[in-house]
Automatic annotation (TrEMBL):
InterPro entries: DUF881. It comes from the Bacteria. The lineage of its organism: Bacteria, Bacillati, Bacillota, Bacilli, Bacillales. Keywords: Coiled coil. Residues 41-88 form a coiled coil. Belongs to the UPF0749 family. The keyword Cell membrane does not apply. This is DUF881 domain-containing protein. It comes from Cytobacillus spartinae.
């Protein structure tokens, strides 16, 4: 009887020991899984926070990029406006220089021609000596033909002519805007040399008329003609 009771106690002790071990193992496993779950949750929250920060940064970058494009477009508009203004100022400067040239306010130079008019040789048999002298209408014929042919500037004996210039015959000299010039009269003009010379040399044109009136006429094409500004104020 005692042996049986003792055997039962041994078996019961073994059972309790096994149960205790199983409970301890189960508790340890539960704590480990709980700790693993806690780490996983913390990591997920951290990843979520980093993802949200990344999204916010990308949105900020897009806004900054959009703002940059807007400013670049403004810069392009300003550059285009400045370019147009620069072209406008350049055109105004060109117009001003051209008007100054037409008004005779500045020295000009360029290709052109040089026409010389001299009194003809005196013939004792000719009763009227005026038939051999260069008069203002002779000079006018040359000047008008030069302007009609595209001359941009004309001078007589170096004196610049303007749209208001006048020429008067005063005995053996001619008067240009109040300044007297003796013969020979050298008329210089800036323009296309071929066009100007062709216009003056037309058959029955200015040259033929002057020669028929006993005026010595000579014409030279020049690579460079320099004409000073107008005299006076």
């Amino acid at each position: 009887m005692k042996m049986k009771m003792k055997g039962k106690h041994v078996i019961l002790s073994l059972v309790c020991l096994v149960l205790g071990y199983m409970m301890a193992f189960s508790y340890h496993l539960t704590q480990k899984e709980k700790a693993s779950t806690t780490i996983t949750n913390n990591q997920w929250e951290r990843d979520l926070e980093l993802r949200n920060q990344l999204i916010a940064q990308e949105e900020k970058n897009r806004n900054l990029q959009k703002e940059l494009h807007e400013k670049q477009n403004k810069v392009l508009d300003i550059e285009e406006q400045l370019s147009q203004e620069e072209q406008l100022f350049f055109n105004l400067a060109e117009d001003t220089e051209r008007f100054r040239m037409y008004l005779g306010k500045v020295k000009v130079k360029g290709k052109g021609v040089e026409v010389t008019l001299k009194d003809g040789e005196y013939d004792p048999d000719e009763a009227n000596i005026n038939n051999y002298i260069v008069h203002e209408h002779h000079v006018f014929k040359v000047i008008n033909e030069l302007y009609i042919s595209g001359a941009t500037a004309v001078a007589i004996n170096g004196q610049r002519l303007t749209s208001n210039s006048y020429i008067l015959c005063n005995g053996p000299v001619i008067e240009v805007d109040g300044f007297q010039h003796p013969a020979p009269f050298v008329i210089t003009a800036i323009g296309d040399p071929e066009v100007l010379s062709s216009a003056l040399n037309l058959t029955g044109g200015v040259k033929d008329i002057l020669v028929s009136e006993n005026i010595e006429f000579s014409l030279v094409e020049k690579e460079e003609v320099i004409i000073d500004p107008i005299l006076g104020t």
